[in-house]
Amino acid sequence: MAGGASKVTFIFLVAFAISIPSLNARIGELDEYLKEQELEAHEIAVESYVPDPTNVTTELNLHVHRDGTDGKEEETNSTRRELKAKYRGPCLALNPIDRCWRCKKSWAKNRFKLASCAKGFGRRAVGGLGGKIYTVTDPSDDDMVEPKPGTLRYGAVQKDPLWIVFAHSMVIALKQELLVSSDKTIDGRGASVTITGGAGITMQFVNNVIIHGLRIHGIKAKEGGMMRDSWNHVGLRTRSDGDAVSLFGSSNVWLDHLSLSDCEDGLIDVIASSTAVTISNCHMTKHNDVMLFGASDTYTDDKIMQITVAFNHFGQGLIQRMPRCRFGFFHVLNNDYTHWLMYAIGGSSGPTILSQGNRFIAPNNGAAKEVTHRDYAPPDVWAKWQWRTENDLFMNGATFTESGPPLGKLPFNKGFLMKPRHGSQANRLTRFAGALNCKVGKPC
C-alpha cells in the first residue's frame, strides 16, 4: 500500500459534472487518478453490456427449470405474512445459485467454488478468485487513510485479487463508507458478520466484486473526509448517503445472501452506468426506499444498465422501490413479495422490466394493491415502456399494469425464452434468503 496521501491535482467539481451530469460520486475534488479510473470503468461497462439481454434471461430460466422442486410443493394459498419458523432439517438448496455450493460439507475448504455460482447479468463476477485468502481479525475501523492490517478496510483496498473471510463473528461500525476495490470477494460464511451503526459499503469505478453473507442494518450518512479507495490512492470524499450497499460506475458485481434493513437512505443503490449486476437470495425488511437503479432521469448513459433481481424475499416493513428503475433492462425473477406499503416495482425514463415467476401479496390497504408505479410521465408516454409479467402469482388483490409491446417484438433476436418457475413456487425458492448460519464442516 502506498504510504500517505497521493499527490493530487485539484479540479473544480464542475469539471466532473461534465463527465457525469447531476452525479458527483461523493468525490470532493476530482484528480487525474480518479478520472482515469472512471474512463477505465466505463470501458469495462461497455464490454459487459449484453446487446441481447434476453439471452441472459433465457440462460437463467433454463437453470431454474433444470432445478426442479424435489417433487415437493410449497403451500401458497395463504396470505399470512408472519416470520417463518427456523428450519432445522437437512440442508435444502432450492434454487440454482444455492444448488451450486450450499449443501457441500467441504464449502469452507473450497470457498472459491462460490465464484462459479453466479447467474443472470452478474454471472461473470468471480471476485477474488485465484487470489490469496485474507482473514479479518479486527472489527475496528479507526484509520481511513492507513487502515490497520487485519481490518476489513485494509483488505478491501488491496491491489491484487483477494478473498476476504472473517476469523470469528463480529460487529463492525464503519467510521466512513467502505470503498471496495476491484477483484474482491467479501465472504461472511462461517461467522455472523454484522455491519451496523456507521457507514455502508461502496463500489465506485470498480469491476468484479462479490459480497456474500453479511448482515447490514442501521447505516448512517457520514460527513466524509480523506479516504483510501485503493492501494495507491487517497482522495477527498464528501458526505455519504447512508446506503447499505452502493454501486457507482461499477460492473460485474454479485450481491448474494445479504440481510438488509433500516438504513438512512437506500438498501441497494446502483447508479452511473453500473451494469452486469445480480442481486440474489437477499432478505430485506423495515425500510422505505429499498432499491434504486439509476439516480437521475437525465443521465441517459444508464441505458447500459442490466440487472438481475432473483430469489430475494421482500419482507416486513418495506414501503416502496423493490426496485425503482430508470433506462435499463431489469429481470425480476422468482422473488417473494410479502410486504409493501405503497408499491413494489416502479420506474421512470422508459426502463424495460421483465417480471417472471414472482409472488406478490398485496397489503390490505385497497389503495395499494397495484404492484407497479410509473413516475414523471403521462399515460400516453409510459404506455410505450415495456413492463411485462409472466407466470407471476398475484394474491390478496394484487395487480400488475403491463405496458409496451411484448418482449418478442423487441428489435433484437430474443431467441427461445423459457418460462421460469411459476410464482406459486417463489416462497420455496426464497426460503433461505438472507445471511446463512454456516458452520465449518457442515452444509450451510
From TrEMBL:
<protein>
    <recommendedName>
        <fullName>Pectate lyase</fullName>
        <ecNumber>4.2.2.2</ecNumber>
    </recommendedName>
</protein>
<dbReference type="InterPro" id="IPR007524">
    <property type="entry name" value="Pec_lyase_N"/>
</dbReference>
<dbReference type="InterPro" id="IPR011050">
    <property type="entry name" value="Pectin_lyase_fold/virulence"/>
</dbReference>
<keyword id="KW-0325">Glycoprotein</keyword>
<comment type="similarity">
    <text>Belongs to the polysaccharide lyase 1 family.</text>
</comment>
<keyword id="KW-0732">Signal</keyword>
<feature type="signal peptide">
    <location>
        <begin position="1"/>
        <end position="25"/>
    </location>
</feature>
<keyword id="KW-0964">Secreted</keyword>
<keyword id="KW-0456">Lyase</keyword>
<keyword id="KW-0134">Cell wall</keyword>
<keyword id="KW-0106">Calcium</keyword>
<dbReference type="Pfam" id="PF00544">
    <property type="entry name" value="Pectate_lyase_4"/>
</dbReference>
<dbReference type="GO" id="GO:0030570">
    <property type="term" value="F:pectate lyase activity"/>
</dbReference>
<comment type="pathway">
    <text>Glycan metabolism; pectin degradation; 2-dehydro-3-deoxy-D-gluconate from pectin: step 2/5.</text>
</comment>
<dbReference type="Pfam" id="PF04431">
    <property type="entry name" value="Pec_lyase_N"/>
</dbReference>
<dbReference type="InterPro" id="IPR002022">
    <property type="entry name" value="Pec_lyase"/>
</dbReference>
<dbReference type="InterPro" id="IPR018082">
    <property type="entry name" value="AmbAllergen"/>
</dbReference>
<keyword id="KW-0479">Metal-binding</keyword>
<dbReference type="InterPro" id="IPR012334">
    <property type="entry name" value="Pectin_lyas_fold"/>
</dbReference>
<dbReference type="InterPro" id="IPR045032">
    <property type="entry name" value="PEL"/>
</dbReference>
<feature type="domain" description="Pectate lyase">
    <location>
        <begin position="169"/>
        <end position="366"/>
    </location>
</feature>
<dbReference type="GO" id="GO:0046872">
    <property type="term" value="F:metal ion binding"/>
</dbReference>
